[in-house]
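Session log. Operator J.P. requested a structure for one protein chain; no other inputs attached. Running the standard single-chain path with token output.
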Amino acid sequence: MNAFLLAHKQGDLARAVQNAIRIICVPLARFSIRFGVPLHTVYTTLRSTFVEVATEERSRLGRMPTDSQIQAITGIRRKSIPQIRQAGEGDWEPNVLAKVLAYWTADPRFKDGNGKPAELPLRAPGNASFAALVKKVGKDLGVRAVLDSLISDGNVEQTDYGTVRLKTTVMANTKDLQIAVNAGAKGVAFHFETALKNIKNLSEGLPEREFDQMRYSLTIPKSRAKFVDEKIRRILSRAEQEIEQILDLEEVSPENIDLILMGAGFYQFNRNRR
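Structure written below.
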């Protein structure tokens, strides 16, 4: 293969990889926005993870990589790498909407006589209004823009009297949500790692690949969606129970040093076509 053709094919692969990254980033961006994580926090976490993974990958060759090698792999400036290692992921600073909700639930000025978030007038003299709440977070913020975003997210509602009310769902105990977030993240990571391993094996011509299949249709009528959803759920539930039985039979004491992680992931999806 001549150099021009090789470069062309590599360019096609690079574009495919870039498109794959964008596809992956769409749910990541949606997840971050939904939970009030701003872009700079995601970037800081991603940069720290790049250094961590690059160090881990090169350490498998038998020695710790230099900062110059990490720079060559990741594109991060060499002088920044020690600072990134020391800082780690950094503290999470919530976005504007999350800060507004936090002040509303914590600041006594925005609570009622029972200590709960008060129903606030949109604008009013003094400090007990939604406008005052927004300006407490940032004086240059648009009150209407913040309100519309919070309403769109389902966090607040505006009453017929023009006041702004915090929905009770925002006040729910977050323990179960934290567990669900962690479990969901692990599921995504396991699935993505499996896909990456299969892509690596494919690129090296290796026949053995981990099972990673997906079946879907874009032409299911909405009138049949509930029936199809329930049927798929029953099939996956049976498979889940069978795999759980196999894993239970094969498990040994965690003190055994010769252990590996094994399992299978299940998920179903039901999305409107875009």
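Operator note: The chain has a mean pLDDT of 85.
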